[in-house]
Amino acid sequence: YVADISNKFKKVFNGLCQKVCFFSLNKLNRFIKVHKDPLPGVSRRKIAYKINCNDCDASYVGQTYRKLKTRISEHKKRSTVSEHGLYHGYNLDWDNVEILDEERYYNKRVISEMIHIKRQRHGLNLQTDTEALSLTYNDVLDKLL
Known about the structure:
Elements: H1 3-14, H2 28-31, E1 47-52, E2 59-64, H3 68-77, H4 80-88, E3 98-102, H5 106-119, H6 135-144
Antiparallel strand pairs: 1-2, 1-3
């Protein structure tokens, strides 16, 4: 549940004779871990993430099944993200990559990635990164964002 977006989303769908319900993901077992310590961010897998530029408001959103540190090392070699840094002489915030979502199912993770790409103001993602997003999602997101 994200206050502004969720309420707008509900309002749009309630107008279309659809009922929208929300449920809590914040269950006690998510906060109290008896058996294991949480993994550091760079060791987490199956996530959507965001890399910010330290020198401007540009950002890149991606998703990975593998460990985040593996994916970051690939971005550093040659990618749209590293080209932004090289072309403009900017520094990307490789040490503080933001984890946006954790989703074990690929399709849900990709949809999450596409939604976060659409929410960016100055994204470094290619326009083709959101082509697979359903027109239904696009219409709703355009009204919400």
